[in-house]
Design goal:
The protein has a 7-stranded parallel beta sheet with strand order 3-2-1-4-5-6-7, sandwiched between helices. With 279 residues, the protein is an alpha/beta fold. It is globular, with a radius of gyration of 18 Å. Strand 4, helix 5 and strand 5 form a beta-alpha-beta unit. Helix 2 packs parallel to helix 3, helix 2 crosses helix 8 and helix 4 runs parallel beside helix 5. Helix content is 42%, strand content 13%. The longest helix is centred in the middle third of the chain and has 29 residues. The structure holds beta-D-glucopyranose (BGC). The site of beta-D-glucopyranose has 9 residues, from loops.
């Protein structure tokens, strides 16, 4: 009998998303990178969006193509309306349509409240929240135009909003980031309510502490990692592939009746671990 890891690896090769076209923003590193590759492994053609570092985006494209599907890299700043419009229309031209949007691009610009500059506040809101709105809006126009194609998917389109445990956990020193992710929760739920009658499924994925460049200082020394693990009941830091698998399954028809939900991928970080012994 296989281990659960073997089973997960096997599941990664299931062509659950065969024939679907996916756009993953911020796909040249971290969670976006793993997600773009994960969707490719599940049979989707993938557009790899990035805003800087074309080399790493092209490397992701290579890994996806090795799965026998189509992929290309597209440079665009998700907070710029013209660039998002251009990105989605090119995708429709080159791949024919879009079935899955993973609105993943996000960043942190951390500072205590009184030290935070308006530019730091604005940048995080622009990319993390406005970026998701713009990408979702443009993808939805195509979902509505095309409608359901039953041979491809039971729904007219899927939007996965990459959120964070900080959509519900306040985070001192990161007021811009926590506010952006709180906004992503309401953006996601409101879009889900508005678009469900059109057979468009909108859901969120909320990662906890995942081993990526965004939070390197929280895990790259044994001391930092031990401190971080106090917040994670499951006893390990997450890997980008943990999130990638969640996104792929959520985007697939296996979860066709899941609408407006957040899937937390956090090893239990949202379970108030301090209360395991206190209270
Ligand atoms: C942040 C990480 C952080 C994690 C858990 C994520 O959304 O980007 O920096 O480690 O939440 O706090």
């Amino acid at each position: 009998m296989g281990t659960s890891v073997d089973e997960a690896r096997k599941a990664e090769r299931l062509p659950l998303l065969k024939g679907q076209k996916a756009l993953v923003t911020g796909a040249n590193s971290g969670i976006g990178r793993a997600t773009a590759i994960g969707l490719g492994r599940m049979g989707a053609d993938v557009v790899v969006n990035y805003v800087s570092d074309a080399d790493s985006a092209n490397q992701v494209v290579g890994e996806i193509e090795a799965c026998g599907v189509r992929a290309y890299a597209h440079e665009a700043d998700v907070s710029r309306e013209d660039q998002v419009v251009g990105m989605v229309s090119r995708m429709v031209e080159e791949l024919g349509t879009i079935d899955i949007l993973v609105a993943n691009a996000g960043l942190q610009r951390d500072a205590r409240l009184t030290d935070m500059t308006l530019a730091q506040w604005q940048k995080v809101l622009d990319v993390n929240l406005t970026g998701q709105y713009l990408c979702a809006r443009e993808a939805t126009k195509e979902f509505l135009r095309r409608g359901v194609v039953p041979e491809v998917s039971s729904s007219a389109g899927k939007i996965i909003c990459m959120s964070s445990v900080h959509q519900i956990i306040p985070w001192a020193g990161h007021v811009n980031y926590a506010a952006s992710k709180g906004g992503v929760l309401m953006l996601m739920e409101t879009m889900a309510q508005e678009l469900a009658p059109h057979k468009i499924r909108v859901n969120g994925v909320a990662p906890g502490a995942i081993r990526t460049p965004i939070n390197r200082s929280a895990w790259d020394t044994p001391e930092a990692e031990a401190k971080l693990l106090e917040l994670i009941p499951y006893g390990r830091v997450g890997e980008p592939e943990d999130v990638a698998r969640a996104v792929a399954v959520l985007a697939s028809d296996l979860l066709d009746y899941v609408v407006g939900t957040t899937l937390y991928v956090d090893g239990g970080m949202t379970l108030f671990p301090g209360f395991a012994t206190g209270g």
